[in-house]
Amino acid sequence: MSPLAVARACITGGAGFIGSNLADRLIAAGAEVVVVDDFRTGRHEFLASLRDHPRFSLVEGDVLDPGVLEQAFTGCDWVFHLQANADVRHGTEHPRLDLEQNTLSTSGVLEVMRATGVRQILFSSTGSVYGEPEVFPTPEDAPFPQQTSFYGASKLACEGLIEAYSTGFGMTGVVCRFVSILGERYTHGHVVDFYRQLKRDPTHLGILGDGKQTKSYLYVVDCVDAMLACVDRHAGESGCFVYNLGTNETILVDESVRIITSHLGVAPEIEHSGGIRGWIGDSPLIHLDTSRIRSLGWSPRVTIAQAIGHTLDWLDDNEYAWRDQGTRYQEQRGSSR
Amino acid sequence: MSPLAVARACITGGAGFIGSNLADRLIAAGAEVVVVDDFRTGRHEFLASLRDHPRFSLVEGDVLDPGVLEQAFTGCDWVFHLQANADVRHGTEHPRLDLEQNTLSTSGVLEVMRATGVRQILFSSTGSVYGEPEVFPTPEDAPFPQQTSFYGASKLACEGLIEAYSTGFGMTGVVCRFVSILGERYTHGHVVDFYRQLKRDPTHLGILGDGKQTKSYLYVVDCVDAMLACVDRHAGESGCFVYNLGTNETILVDESVRIITSHLGVAPEIEHSGGIRGWIGDSPLIHLDTSRIRSLGWSPRVTIAQAIGHTLDWLDDNEYAWRDQGTRYQEQRGSSR
Fold it and tell me: ipTM of the predicted structure?
């Protein structure tokens, strides 16, 4: 990326997994970075190396508070809106949460961008907006999908808002539909869940679904590269541009499990809860067509297996990031609903 | 429709154009009908013939108030959620309005349905969710669209919510994507706008855009028939079902104008504002594929020209419905923005 298309970026959710990796990269590339985070799921540890950097600043607060956003956005040329409720599985337990944390927060971000004169936004959407697609690998212009999760529905609503703002006000929108992201600072999803279970009890592993769900993962460093390739390509261009971010690879849940058990040197008894989906809204098959992002010259540098390896190495070295939380499997088994 | 798949229906926005026509039909077919309306755009006149009917009741209030909805929904087997901000053109002047009036109101409707045990919803969506499509006539599974209006974005968000609720809670969702509807009680859109201008000044007519915009219209009686065909087909079925409601016909804006000037016996000087779109978010070409709704045995009974004729006859007889409002053309010309 040279010259850098970003002078001063605000990253919402910048203390989170992907946001803090992006912050590191932008600082290293010479940009100014303002992180907004309320530290509900973000972590101060993830910003430790940036805290005293002269081009870094932190606004601690809720993105639903316009005053917080005004303070953070003023003087920026890009907003990377990564803050979100990222939990797909629990959608039906609180259907308003995704609406509030994702859709309403994005609406607020866009309004404060208008008010503060910031014209460019990159948004972290999700492959979940394809619901259960009929076309694989799934391209950006796949048939008009139906939503199967509150998470996907809320992100789709955000995409629509960003497109309407881009059309209505001549802004620049970049919508990145992510597969699941792995790597350093990953704290939420299959891999950490299995890892956590096995650290507590190496003899038993519970898997939601039949284990044959086919997933796609992208390494966070590759993900940040891809976001910046989009920014480079579309900076200053009016309109909204949509990209799948993923790899051409897929992996079975059971295969991920084999990599994890091998890494840990354990041989647990494996119990599948059964069914082709791990939960309502879980997509049995995720495989995005990434031709469009590859046409920008980007390609991922590591395989899914390597990305899982990097993740496990990081979890080994950073017990604080996974030790204090319950496992999703336990939550489901312990729930009376 | 026999036997009627609806025992007791709540119609949000039931004092509006389409809602009140639907209410008439359901009462005539033997159903109980509860109308919710705050009369911001709905009209008491449209319910005059139902007011004293033993199977009709009215809950006057805001759909954003859960208490109002609870009162209205209790005991219903269907909700027809027609209440909306229906103004596409002014979206950029108040980007939160569509979000609040459409997306948040739909979220509230779905939550109160859960709370009151109503399991079936028909939702009035719009062909605007296709943005500016590349496929004509545009089918329900057209390529994943980009939104070009706040109105379309807000309705797309509603569709996603209804799909997520249908998937997550096994409810029945019917999403009808309407073209513009014409007929008795029509008070908003091209036809009434041109009519109103010509009633005030028969010598001059201002048209937003180049007049070559290609539109599709559906007669309100045909629209109500189509909604009830969907209800008949899907009552009791879990999932979400999407239908375009329109005709196989299209009409140029200039052609509509000729029908209106001929009806009124006037020969105005016509001034086009120019451009292929009348305003930001106006789609230059609307033509929906209606094969899916036709596969249920429905077809429209009147042509677009006849629908315009019925509309003009009704406007002739109901001056109260159009006399007191400004014209959209005048609003735009008088605006300094």
Answer: 0.92
Residue of A nearest to B153 (CA): A160
Q: Domains in chain B: how many in total?
A: 2
Map tokens 């609903």 to a residue.
Answer: A337
Q: Are B184 and B309 in contact (CB under 8 A)?
A: no
The predicted model scores a pTM of: 0.93
Ranges of H-type helices in chain B? 17-28, 66-73, 95-98, 105-116, 150-169, 190-200, 220-234, 253-264, 291-294, 304-317, 328-334
B262: which 2 tokens? 């001929």
In a domain, B106, yes or no: yes
Token reading at B107: 């979220």
Residues of B in contact with A146 (CB under 8 A): 163, 167, 240, 242
Same domain, A177 and A312: no
DSSP structure class, residue B104: I
The pLDDT value recorded for residue A277 is: 85
Mean pLDDT, residues A180-197: 93
Are both A77 and A194 inside the same structural domain? no
What are the residue ranges of helices labelled H in B206-268? 220-234, 253-264
Asked whether residue B168 is assigned to any structural domain, the reply reads yes
Angle, helix A253-264 to helix A304-317, in steps of 10 degrees: 40
CATH number where B159 lies: 3.40.50.720
Contact A280 B240 (CB under 8 A): no
| Same domain membership, residue A92 and residue A205 | no
- Check CB contact of A167 with chain B, cutoff 8 Å: yes
Which chain B residues in 100-159 lie under 8 Å from chain A, judged by CB atoms?
103-104, 107, 110-111, 131, 140-150, 152-154, 156-157, 159
User: How many Cβ atoms sit within 10 Å of the Cβ of residue A297?
Assistant: 9
Q: How far is B231 from chain A (nearest CA, A)?
A: 19
> Do A280 and B107 count as a contact with CB atoms less than 8 A apart?
no
**Which among B103, B141, B164 is the nearest to A149, CB-wise?**
B164
B3-38 per-position pLDDT tens digit: 689 999 999 999 999 999 999 999 999 999 999 999
Q: What is the pLDDT of residue B3?
A: 67
- For A245-261, what is each residue's pLDDT tens digit? 999 999 999 999 999 99
Are B99 and B205 in the same domain? no
Q: Is residue B2 part of a domain?
A: no
Beta strand A120-126 with A78-81 is parallel
What residues contact A271, with CB distance under 8 A and at least 6 apart?
A204, A205, A206, A207
Pick among A167, A244, A288 to test the B interface (most B CBs inside 10 A):
A167
In a domain, A268, yes or no: yes
Domain match, B252 and B148 both: no
| B277: confidence class by pLDDT, cuts 50, 70, 90 | confident
Contact residues, chain A, for B288 at CB < 8 Å: none
CA distance B298 to A256: 50
Query: Domain of B139?
Result: 8-182+218-245
Q: Test A92 with B168 for CB contact under 8 angstroms.
A: yes
Distance, in Å, from the CA atom of B148 to the CA atom of B277, rounded to the nearest integer, reads 12
